[in-house]
Design a protein that fits this description.
By secondary structure, the protein is an all-alpha fold. Helix content is 70%, strand content 0%. The longest helix has 33 residues. One of its GO terms (biological process) is proteolysis.
Length: 256
């Protein structure tokens, strides 16, 4: 695979430096998450502070990631459009299920709306720019000599993204947290698809914000549901997203 196909490889970069910065910014982001739960800072000010910190983190990620683009020139999808259509259908169904939650938030008053908006914006932009931008580019550098560098980078950061949710064990049980780890991995792969497909960071960040914008985010705590429901929703999403990335990776490899 020619390295000049990836926009990131046009820049001078130091992988150790990128990973050290990634760890620092991730720790700051996790600290901001704790700030959002502080009781002595009244709501919604604790959530607004969290949003401010995470947006600053996102800005630093964008700077050190060098670029938000994945490819200089994108190959045509061809038959891959079938998988893209399936993903769009899943996305529509997934987000239609969110509409009731959005309405519930706005019906609970201004304070609740600000809390949910600030938390979802912080999580959406903070997490996307850490994982799908800075770490994504860093792992592209790690796997640059592998013909499946795009797929390996996507899988690696999605796995780390899922495991990051283990920090929620500090305020919720294992059953709920383990489910979060699984569906965060699946959603992470989906957001990788959106990042690669859109060739920008704004689209996945906005999609992440809309996904997190729900009444549950007000307490930052989830409860376990039957695994059957989780698997029915997120396993097809995981499989289709992974297939899309692998096939697209092969198309990029063959593209001249």
């Amino acid at each position: 695979m020619k390295n000049n196909k990836f926009t990131f490889f046009k820049y001078q970069y130091s992988l150790p430096k990128m990973f050290i910065i990634s760890i620092i910014l991730l720790l700051i982001y996790l600290f901001a998450g704790k700030v959002s739960l502080l009781k002595f800072i009244p709501q919604p000010w604790n959530r607004l502070l969290y949003m401010a910190i995470t947006l600053v983190v996102a800005g630093f990620c964008a700077y050190f990631a060098k670029t938000s683009k994945v490819l200089e020139v994108r190959p045509k999808q061809g038959k891959l459009a079938i998988l893209s259509t399936i993903l769009v259908v899943i996305l529509v169904l997934l987000y239609l299920g969110k509409v009731i939650g959005w309405v519930m938030i706005f019906n609970q008053g201004l304070t609740v709306t600000i809390i949910c908006l600030a938390t979802a914006i912080g999580a959406g932009f903070g997490e996307e720019f850490i994982f799908r931008n800075l770490l994504f580019n860093a792992f592209l550098g790690v796997f640059r000599n592998n013909k499946y560098s795009l797929a390996l980078s996507s899988i690696t950061i999605s796995a780390i993204f899922g495991l990051m949710h283990l920090v929620n064990l500090t305020h919720q049980d294992w059953a709920a947290t383990s489910q979060q780890v699984f569906y965060a991995f699946a959603i992470g792969l989906l957001f990788c698809v959106i990042h690669i497909w859109s060739n920008t960071m704004i689209v996945p960040a906005l999609m992440h914000f809309l996904f997190d914008f729900s009444p549950v985010i007000k307490t930052a705590t989830t409860v376990a549901v039957p695994w059957a429901g989780i698997l029915i929703i997120f396993l097809p999403l995981l499989v289709v997203s992974l297939l899309w990335i692998v096939i697209y990776n092969r198309k990029v490899q063959a593209f001249e």
